[in-house]
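Hi everyone,

Forwarding the result from last night's run.
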Amino acid sequence: MRLQPRQQILEIWQATARTSYPENKWVLGGRDSSNSISDAEQLLCILLPAAEVPMFRLDRPDETGEDVLTAVALFGDSVEVPRMLIRVLTEYMERYQDENGTPLFAGEGYFQPPPGQQAIDDPLRRLDVVDSYSTSVALTLATIGFVRVFKESVRRDDVRREVERLEVLASRRLSAAMVGLLRSFTVNVFDAYSEEGRALCRTANQSGLPERQVIEEIRQELREINARLRDVTIGSGAGTAEDLDNPNRLFECGWSWGVVRNAPEILTREEVGKQPEGVALAAPYLYFTVVALDAIAALFSERTRLLGLLNEPQTRLAQALQVRWELTQSYWSKIATFGSGRWPLEDIPWRTTDRVESDYFSLLVSSIVVQDLVRRRAPDADLSRVGQVLGELANRARITRRPFQRRDPAISLHAPGVRIDLLGMDISDVLLSWTVTDFSPLLLKRTMRIAGLMRDTALRSDLLQLADNVWDHLEQRRILQEPGINLWDRPDQVFDLPAPEVDGPSWYYSRRVVECLVTASEVVTSPPLRNQRLADLAADLLSEADHRFDQELLRGSTEAGPAMRGALQGARATLQRARSIIDAYPGSAFVLISEVLRDLDRLDAARSDLAGGR
């Protein structure tokens, strides 16, 4: 890969430190106004690699690498860096809670007025949004893991009290975010012959089957999900069993943009403060469903389990969210891959049940399918089909192809982005708008994810080439001058667009690039693919090398001079090394065995020359 995650992450850390800590004080905000999401994304540019990639960890001062310390030198030395992070994280947790200690998850500056409206009223700006819940889950899990490990090396009582206070604040915010996600989940049930039902059938029906047959096959495909949804008894989405029993009904499930109207309060022993009333439409949004799924996956990740980041009440909340995660993953994956011919996912662009279509929605559905394929350990054939969709999306979005000379509509995917109307209970009531511009980093993240799962070397190579091409595109969009040099985003450097009206980095975009690099690090650190043909050849070579080595011992070569004995001892050690790695690294074993065979053949040739000379 041309993409080098270690070098790139260190460069981003230097840029983040330079932009966020100019005068020994953390400065919030960037291109977007300071809010609960943007400020968390700014912190995650540092904390996410430190939590997910061992070589970047900052929680053990004695083990922090020199190049890592150089990248964050503005924060201080190996002891001062974690203490500074504790102060800044505590300030964030306190900033986004009310006077009673209730965590706040308002979208504020990320909310935009609906078309034709000039401004947003303050009550609307303060509405909770799923993106803030999801971002807070990522931030608080990283924070709790960080302080748990750092606390082991703390000796001073005052520092320990700071650490323990931050852990309490982070745990409370994590619980509140989990409750918010439970209350934002929804199941939208509709008549099969309604506009929504016909739209779903048109998306799923790639073979031109009769409508009645498609409806019946969809219900059959979703019958297990249908049955399990009836067991959902807490939070929004509960109480849908009666509607789901009707054979003339279809449904979709996922996350709305915020707490849905009439969502019941969640009973928990955790102190989460007042639970706000819901105002969001009880229907899933693809964007918010994807960000919720990503956040929930972190709740039952290996790191969360090993570090014991969740207490008992949080574990119960996480289990309830995991049920919804599995059902939602399975639902969208089954719809996206419905039928025996062409997948609906391959029919670009994706069309939603409210009859809106966009390449961005195809990318979002691809993201869900990728996660489901990971869970099911799908074969390369299925992974390859999704990879081809991602390649086509890269072309259509003018990432790997040049744009039209004039007014290419694909450029709007990047700037100004895809606008999402946030609806209230009345579908005609547009409360707010939300704009997403993360097409390129999301495409790179999913491409790297599939490449890491591929077992076929040729298919993997193709996907890594696509990932490099997308990274080349992202590199061109880096900010080239202060403030925010080496961060993101400047789409005008790639497309014929005006420069951003506001200087400074977009933490929304930069955090998503960091996620890509963390995913790339996981791919790089994973074991290389094992090629069976190469493994068989290495095994045959090892058999021959062992046999020729035994022949040399039988001839009494060990009784020869020190040079001969040294050569045979080296051959023995090399063969032992090759034998120990042949299963995991057959290519490396092949090279080692070849060296031994070459040396043994030289010994044999030298003996033949001596015999001929006599």
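The radius of gyration is 28 Å.

Cheers,
N.
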